């Protein structure tokens, strides 16, 4: 059956997901303040600033079978996060619930930054939240706004997203930099294509009558130390590290994300670990030195 999917904050993840859904025969509407990036994607553009939703009312957003809320904050400041996450999501929910045909489910793209663990503890969907940063606290506030709302909602907490164009770590390694061995900092990652894959998979699950949980942790199958990731990339690039990076204390989150719940739904990762994911980026991005004849 042809679905209508409304992607609010239609950036890199939204565009990739939208193209996948269009290929399956669905209609996709992408909401952005600047719609130029949606040109030639097949996604129907809707130019909108979420801050104007209150004045525009129910007519501002069209009816849709599914809504993906994947907004990014303008900057790393508390006011920007407040506007993008709890405030923006609440505005969208208040509009969507007014429609004659409300969405079957609203998905909120959240982050594992809601976890405050620093000692490499294992975390999953049942781990108590004790966010220490304003970003984590406001993200969690937005999650609760959705989960406490009458509309059916599911939160997907993605860990560190990487993929085409998200290659800062590769450039750091290429410059000879590497994370310190100690203190041990665990890094959890997910390739952009698995972010979109999970969201599309969960919609398919609901369409097939499979029960959907209200929360999933979206991270690949191998938590690993940041040092080991960078060392592996360095080996592929044939680069020796010359500069050891020390993580700032305020950013020293360290946890190991358990993705068992999403695996139990039948989702199969395209890139189950950083090795497969970064191998793809290194190859497609032209980072690898050509082999000598």
From TrEMBL:
UniProt name for this protein: Nucleoside-diphosphate-sugar epimerase
Gene Ontology CC annotations of this record: cytoplasm
Cross-referenced CDD domains: SDR_a4
MF terms in GO: aldehyde dehydrogenase (NAD+) activity
NAD-dependent epimerase/dehydratase domain sequence ranges: 5-170
């Amino acid at each position: 059956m042809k679905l209508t999917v409304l992607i609010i904050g239609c950036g890199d993840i939204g565009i990739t997901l939208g193209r996948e859904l269009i290929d399956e025969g669905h209609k996709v509407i992408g909401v952005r303040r600047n719609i130029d990036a949606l040109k030639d994607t097949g996604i129907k553009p809707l130019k909108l600033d979420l801050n104007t939703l209150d004045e525009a009312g129910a007519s501002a957003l069209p009816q849709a079978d599914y809504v993906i809320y994947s907004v990014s904050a303008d900057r790393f400041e508390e006011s920007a996060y407040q506007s993008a996450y709890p405030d923006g999501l609440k505005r969208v929910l208040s509009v969507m619930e007014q429609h004659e045909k409300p969405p079957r489910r609203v998905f909120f793209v959240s982050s594992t930054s809601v976890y405050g663990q620093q000692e490499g503890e294992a975390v999953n969907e049942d781990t108590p939240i004790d966010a220490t940063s304003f970003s984590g606290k406001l993200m969690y506030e937005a999650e609760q706004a959705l989960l406490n709302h009458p509309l059916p909602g599911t939160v997907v907490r993605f860990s560190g997203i990487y993929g085409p164009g998200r290659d800062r770590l590769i450039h750091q390694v290429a410059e000879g930099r590497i994370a310190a061995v100690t203190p041990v900092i665990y890094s959890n990652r997910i390739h952009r294509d698995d972010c979109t894959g999970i969201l599309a998979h969960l919609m398919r699950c609901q369409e097939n009558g499979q029960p959907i949980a209200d929360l999933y942790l979206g991270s690949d199958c191998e938590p690993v130390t940041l040092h080991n990731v960078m060392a592996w990339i360095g080996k592929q690039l044939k680069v020796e590290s010359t500069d050891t990076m020390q993580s700032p204390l305020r950013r020293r989150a360290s946890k190991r994300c358990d993705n068992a719940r999403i695996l139990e739904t039948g989702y199969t990762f395209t890139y189950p670990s950083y090795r497969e994911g970064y191998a793809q980026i290194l190859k497609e991005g032209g980072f690898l030195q050509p082999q000598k004849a």
